[in-house]
Amino acid sequence: MTLRITQYGESVLHQKGETVQSFDNELIQLSKDMLEAMHKVQGIGLAAQQVGKALRFCVMDVPDHPDYPMACILDGKPLSPSLIMPLSLANPDVSALPCNEYYYEEGCLSFPEIRGEVARPERILVCYQDLDGIQHELECDGLLARCIQHEADHLDGILFIERMEKEVYAEIKSEVNALKKATLDCLRKGKLPEVPIPQTEE
To answer: What is the rounded distance in angstroms from the CA atom of residue 201 to the CA atom of residue 101?
Structure first.
């Protein structure tokens, strides 16, 4: 089933997710459907709020990049991040490891074509449950760490524009306001806003 990605202006994006309690076929199907919706619009991460569900659950498929290597340690074992992709995280709890913060331009599928720099810790530890409810600990850095932090924020109802410095947000404020207005106009007319599907690979 193709899921619709919610757009800025829809209230579910500011809702905190409920704890995942059932690790069953329904959750497995939700993961598959979310990954399908995410891949369709060439995203690398998607939270449950972005498909209209206030649930502490997210998926991601972060590609390797030769210029931006990522390291990860899963349950104490170093491995290539590509071996755990795509990744489904239920009830993730993220904490920063001793490291510096760095700025990186982020986007969000709920904010089509809107991007801005956000400062986040370079290296994190995330404790989460997989689709079987098994607990894991993942240490990672780079784009994977950033993606996890971005999606975990969604699960708390926090959006990336709220992490931006005032000067950065000021540069995109008009675009953000226009998106919110367009979303609310659609909802008032009884329509659901849709994410535009990219026509070409980046």
So the answer is: 30
